[in-house]
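Trying the structure run again after the queue cleared.
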Amino acid sequence: MPEDHSSHSELKSWMQSFAPEFATASLEPSMTISEAADRSGLSESALRKYEAAGLILYHRTSGNVRVLSKEDLERIELIQHLIKKKGLNFEGIRRLWSLLPCWEFKSCSEEQRLHCDVFQNGEKPCWMLFQELENVVVDDCRTCEVYRMAALCTEDLKSMVRTVIKGRFTPSCHTDKS
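Done. C-alpha cells:
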C-alpha cells in the first residue's frame, strides 16, 4: 500500500507545533527524588520503579543522585492518572507511548526505518530502546520532543494513530507553552 505523504506531513507539522520548546526552564533539575516523592504523594521507591520501567528519565548529578525537574513532576502526575483513572499498568503505558511515531518527527528515511528497532518493534518507545544501546546519552532523549510529547498528549495518541491511518488527522490536544 503506498504511503500517504500528505498525512505524514500533516502529522509532522502537528507534532512540531505542539511539541514542548527545546530549551525551557521546566527541564532544569530543581528537586531531589525525596522532594518529588513528598510533592507527588508517592514513595521514592515508586518513583524509582517508574524510572526502571522506562516511563521517565531522571537527571543525574555527577554523584549519580536523581534530581527532577518541574516537567518530570508533571510526567509523574500523568503516570499516576493513567494508572489510577485509566486503569493502565506500566506495560500499557509503554505500549501506548510506543505508538508515537518518532520516525515521522525525526524525518527518518525509508532505509533508516528498515533498520530501526523503534520502527520495527512496537513494544517500547524510542527512548527505552535507545537506552539499551551503547553510547546513547539519556539527556539527548530527555530533551527530545518525542519523549516530552509522549506524556503531553497521551489522551490523543490513540485517535492520532487511527486518524493518521485513515489519512484524516485532527488532534484535540492543546498545550500551554508558557
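The longest strand covers residues 29-32. Worth checking whether this holds up in the mutant runs.
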